[in-house]
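Here is the promised in-class demo. Please do not try to memorize the tokens; focus on the logic of going from shape to residues.
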């Protein structure tokens, strides 16, 4: 297809701001930093957009673009687990129909750029460049389109550290955002789609990599705003939805090391050395380990120092970030062997434990169930009793200040339903107002200072403006599951009866239909160190 266009106009543009929320957007609007986004908000209607549990990127965006909860689409985290093994999720783990495929079945075309967990793409009417969890230079749809984008837009990168600007620099963020916008505009000129969906990840990334850095945050949002202005001019959409997958804010409470708590109550076994689960022995986890001399060492004082650091909660990632800030990462890294760092830290012995946190981003406890896990320690007949014991135990946890640690501790059925329920944590542990945090570490005190001063909040943001959205209608109880039904309704496409959301009240005239079962591609593994490295850099692994 060439760059020519027909008379068809873009009916709907969806702009995804990862971690966008009022507490971030309002000051930027008031200071005049994001005039284009401010204008969209002022001209339309806006409100909070409640995320799912857990409110993390890897699971939340699939919930948004399918309109279904993780129990139906199958993705609960950045990781998927098979017994005691893990893989980083990709689009083949999403077992429900993305909204652009549903639109395609009704003769409508889409351009989708940078939406997380969309690699590898499937056939549909339009074009797609994957976002987070995809490898650098991922396969796109249609085949070969990424090469065209790179030629037209002077290169393109999925991740900022892949640019020629310094990693985590403002210039690196700005260039990545610019590439995102240019690629989307190019594809829209080329495809002339009915529906456009572009996501900006750096609005989340900057808080993980440069927490509290006002200059960096403003630069990221200003760069996004400039691209949004260009996109609006290029595509001239009839309607615009601005959406986020979750919010962002300071963590002022405490960090709770759930696995250490479970060990002290007899539910968990730990060990030193070995691989543990997930297997963090890959080199990408140990950012200190740079240089060919890293493996030459002797035990003794170095091991003692690393063991003390581990017990204090100072992980390799935290040390690496601190050293990198003062320019010492490489020289120190040449003296610290990765196997010594691993051996210094205790690990969960998952096969021998009764219950454990597999990944902090799951926000829950997995029971090592006989017949389900490879070396299950809890008999099926004891499952309900053990689960209730753990719910009662964790519900009573208070912080060192005497405040409740969790807002909710509940069976997974409170949040999930569907054919993939068995893949979920058995118990969900929702921190109080998301002002506390949980981690999966062992070998340290139950409570400590949060490693990440900024982290996800459950309340995100939605704004709707355009000729087909009803003016003046408040958006007060919208959820992340409502976005896909809203898209369907605007295009007069029947909503999948299995979707968990409802159309936002700014659109009318929805109908429902029972669609044939979705036939996803077989699950395939994304074995790419850069993907895992990126998730580790952001603190998700």
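The designed amino acids, position by position:
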């Amino acid at each position: 297809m060439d760059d020519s266009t027909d008379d068809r106009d873009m009916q709907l543009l969806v702009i995804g701001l990862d971690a966008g929320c009022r507490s971030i957007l309002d000051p930027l609007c008031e200071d005049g930093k994001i005039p284009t986004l401010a204008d969209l908000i002022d001209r339309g209607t806006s409100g909070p957009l409640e995320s799912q549990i857990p409110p993390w990127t890897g699971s939340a965006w699939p919930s948004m673009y399918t309109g279904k909860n993780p129990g139906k689409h199958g993705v609960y985290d950045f990781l998927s687990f098979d017994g005691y093994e893990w893989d980083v999720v990709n689009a083949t783990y999403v077992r429900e129909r993305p909204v652009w495929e549903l639109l395609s079945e009704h003769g409508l075309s889409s351009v989708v750029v940078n939406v997380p967990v969309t690699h590898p793409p499937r056939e549909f009417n339009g074009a797609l460049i994957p976002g987070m969890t995809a490898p650098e230079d991922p396969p796109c749809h249609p085949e070969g389109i990424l090469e065209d984008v790179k030629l037209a837009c002077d290169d393109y990168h999925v991740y900022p550290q892949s640019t020629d600007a310094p990693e985590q620099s403002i210039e690196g963020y700005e260039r990545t955002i610019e590439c995102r916008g240019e690629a989307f505009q190019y594809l829209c000129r080329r495809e002339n789609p009915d529906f456009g969906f572009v996501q900006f990840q750096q609005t989340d990334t900057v808080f993980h990599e440069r927490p509290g850095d006002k200059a960096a945050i403003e630069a990221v949002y200003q760069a996004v705003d400039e691209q949004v202005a260009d996109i609006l001019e290029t595509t001239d959409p009839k309607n615009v939805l601005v959406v986020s997958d979750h919010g962002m804010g300071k963590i002022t409470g405490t960090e709770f090391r759930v696995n250490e708590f479970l060990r002290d109550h007899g539910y968990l076994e730990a060990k030193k050395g070995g691989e543990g689960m997930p297997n963090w022995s890959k080199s990408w986890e140990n950012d200190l380990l740079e240089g060919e001399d890293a493996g030459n060492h002797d035990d003794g004082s170095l091991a003692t120092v690393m063991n003390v650091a581990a017990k204090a909660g100072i992980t390799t990632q935290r040390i690496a970030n601190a050293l990198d800030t003062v320019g010492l990462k490489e020289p120190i890294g040449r003296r610290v062997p990765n196997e010594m760092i691993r051996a210094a830290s205790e690990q969960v012995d998952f096969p021998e434990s009764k219950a454990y946190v597999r990944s902090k981003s799951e926000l829950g406890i997995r029971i090592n169930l006989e017949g389900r896990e490879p070396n299950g320690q809890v008999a099926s007949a004891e499952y309900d009793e053990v689960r209730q014991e753990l719910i009662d135990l964790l519900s009573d946890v208070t912080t060192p200040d005497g405040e409740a640690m969790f807002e909710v501790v509940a069976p997974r059925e409170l949040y999930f339903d569907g054919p993939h329920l068995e893949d979920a944590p058995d118990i969900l542990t929702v921190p109080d107002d998301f002002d506390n945090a949980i981690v999966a570490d062992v070998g340290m005190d139950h409570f400590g200072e949060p490693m990440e001063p900024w982290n996800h909040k459950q309340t995100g943001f939605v704004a709707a403006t355009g000729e087909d959205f009803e003016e003046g209608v408040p958006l007060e109880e919208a959820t992340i599951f409502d976005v896909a039904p809203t898209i369907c309704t605007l295009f007069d496409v029947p909503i999948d009866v299995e979707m968990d959301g409802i159309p936002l009240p700014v659109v009318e005239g929805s109908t429902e239909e029972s669609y044939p079962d979705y036939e996803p591609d077989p699950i395939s593994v994304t074995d790419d160190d850069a993907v895992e490295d990126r998730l580790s850099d952001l603190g998700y692994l």
